[in-house]
Amino acid sequence: MSADAEHGGRSRPIRCLIAKVGLDGHDRGAHVIARAFRDAGFEVVYSGLHRSPEEIVQAAVQEDVDVLGISILSGAHNTLVPKVVDGLEEYGAFADTLLIVGGIIPEEDREGLREMGVAAIFGPGTPMEETIEFVREHAPERE
After folding, report:
1. What pLDDT shows up at residue 91?
2. Second label for 136, Cα 20 to 30 Å away, from 37, 56, 100, 143?
3. Of 113, 110, 114, 60, the residue nearest 89 (C-alpha)
4. Coiled coil: which residue ranges (predicted)?
5. Which residue pairs from 27-33 have beta carbons closer than 8 angstroms and sit at least 24 positions apart in sequence?
């Protein structure tokens, strides 16, 4: 099997960072999505708990990820996600990174996150296959 066929037409697997930012201590969902992404053939790095936006940005840049998935349940998304976006822009990595957010995000906050560049928001109960297909369709292609 060629590398392209093995990776869904890509020259390499989609590389993802699943990140927990801030003081949010619940990471079951992050573990579930990381495992599902791995099982879908993506390369996955998990940040662990209690990471600062700066640490998340550093990890995303160092790992050269295609997708940054932020799992957040604390309600601090309007404070922490903009800091991640600013950091990615500072490193020139924002345009090359598909930014998705999962967790408890009130409907009234979603449009603001999308306007700052969040590609999709996946709440509790989202079918895993929906999230995986979104990533396959929208992750930037790199060599």
Report:
1. 96
2. 56
3. 60
4. none
5. 27/71, 29/71, 29/73, 29/102, 29/103, 29/124, 30/69, 30/71, 30/102, 32/128, 33/69, 33/71, 33/102, 33/128, 33/131
Which tokens sit at 70?
């932020």
Which pLDDT does position 52 carry in this prediction?
Answer: 95
Q: Phi, psi at residue 20, to the nearest 5°? A: -110, 115
Q: What sign has the CA pseudo-torsion 45, 95, 115, 77?
A: positive
| Six-digit token string for 102 | 């999962």
Instruction: Say yes or no to pLDDT of 5 above 80.
Output: no
User: Does the structure show a pLDDT above 90 at 111?
Assistant: yes
Alpha-carbon span 57 to 91, nearest angstrom: 9
CA-to-CA separations, 47 to 24, 133, 134, in angstroms, rounded = 13, 22, 21
